[in-house]
Amino acid sequence: MSGDRPTLVIVGAGPRGTGLLERIAANVPALYAGSELDVHLVDPYPPGGGRIWRQAQSPLLWMNSHAEDVTMFTDETVTMQGPVREGPTLHEWAGVGGRLFADRQRQGAYLSWVYEQTVAALPPGIRVHHHPRLAVRVDGPREGRQRVWLAGRAEPLTADIVVLTLGHLDAELDDEQRALASYARTHGLVHLPPDFTADSDLSPLKAGEPVLVRGFGLAFVDLMVLLTEGRGGRYEGDTYVPSGREPVLYVGSRRGVPYHSKIGYDWTGERPPLPRFFGPAEVDVLLARPEGFDFRRDVWPSVEKELGFAHYHRLFTAHPERTTVAWRDFEEKYAVADAASLPALVSAAVPDPADRLDLRALDRPLDGVRHASHDDLQNGLRRYIEADLDRRHDPAHSPDLAVFLGLLSVYGQLVRLGDIGPRWHGFFSHLASGPPGPRLRQMLALSRAGVLKFLGADMTVTAEGGVFRASSGTVPGAFVEARALVEARLPHPTVERTRDRLLRELYADGAAATAEGLLAVDPADGRVLDRSGRPHPRRFALGPHTDARGSGAFTRPRTGGPAFRQNDAAARAALTVLRGPSTTP
């Protein structure tokens, strides 16, 4: 590397690092034309897919989005300063059906192609270098060049700008997990802590033996697939034919149910005009409050009003026969209704309770539900999943899709508030980021085959009597014992407990601050904030390890993509620093 060439180091070459590079390429003509630049990508995994979306993983694992809903390219709906550079969605690039849930290998190939196209679009003076190593430390004077130290390399990379696009973080075990791991070692049990399921060693989970699984989200779906089809089982229609190598999975969680199915039909007709009750003006008010804000008290009422507006707008405009008043009359009263008067307004205008929006029931469907035995619970959960599949694939319930659009709108606004805690992200994932319908049908088949058994809500796990023991509030007094426990969820991405040495040292040195455990960044352009709240002039961070994380791994076309906006702002800020004060764009 030439010591006098401007240099940008991007730590993390997955989708976010690739997206940043794409924005660099898009903004170079206006901000950096004719100048030289070295770009160093640091990641032990291949550029494009990175660790999570690498092509070297099981072909049984799917994307969790329709192929038509995955893009790495901007469009005119993105509010940003840089130019739009359009490109194909996954389904257009791969030549597959838009409603297909593509496997992750194919997504990895798409991301690799995006990376290659982005590099090819850069002018000759900009060179890209990939270092298949871990970055372990960043140091350097605040106003001078930074040094990025790599594992197994004696000399650091010298950088004018460093951008951390690290993605999801591994984490050290918390107190509960350490205690469970210690108990497992002492008693010869199997304990698999929170991890990326595709990276977990599942070989200790033996055929025919019970396995307690805590977590009913997407990590569980991957686990379910790898321990069934991944061990030679197969589906014949709605029937699962075991291979005999499967363990018996006993799954529970806080909610006790899987995430809601992906919606299986397309939008038609008029869209709800969003945002309506939670938009930029409301966020400006919250940000201006000197005393700060509380999410449940100050934010959630507006979120609830926004989602209700989306739901009822669709119901009244697409299914007016199921309402008793005109939309304009309802909308006028809805706008001024408070929490106390809203139920009466909705009851009078929407006769069928199934047409009313009940966010609490959607979020916690087993609250207050009790079963006399685990056998009764299996039948009850199968009915619940079947009903969810029926509803989410029936356009007669299209207000559900309107709520999904409302959730995307809300998420786009919440990004400006920084991270607002795990409850919102869990709520969003449960309603909007559930598994494909076919996965839930597989779940039903596995349940009927006796390979999968449901434990219920508010699952608790104890270690006693030389085994793990699980119980839930849904079947009072009953419990299941097993010699294996799997925590089917991602590690909570806290900077304090991350295994990433680079972040841990930045935090320990006071050069990085946290918000709700995540790396604190300037929401304007992603600059890393120190503990005094000062943005670093040469260090940026983007992605789920920051408090400006977005709503998912990828952006749906024509939804305004907050991640695109963040990438563009960071790219433009970085190029402005790199070109120096004497150069005008």
TrEMBL record:
Q: Which domain of life is it from?
A: Bacteria
SUPFAM superfamilies in the cross-refs: FAD/NAD(P)-binding domain
Q: Where is the FAD-dependent urate hydroxylase HpyO/Asp monooxygenase CreE-like FAD/NAD(P)-binding domain?
A: 9-168
Q: What InterPro entries has UniProt attached to this entry?
A: FAD/NAD-bd_sf, HpyO/CreE_NAD-binding, L-asp_N-monooxygenase_NS-form
Q: Which residues form a coiled coil?
A: none
Give me the ranges of the annotated region Disordered. Answer: 532-564
Q: What name appears for this protein in its UniProt entry?
A: FAD/NAD(P)-binding protein
Q: Which organism is it from?
A: Streptomyces cynarae
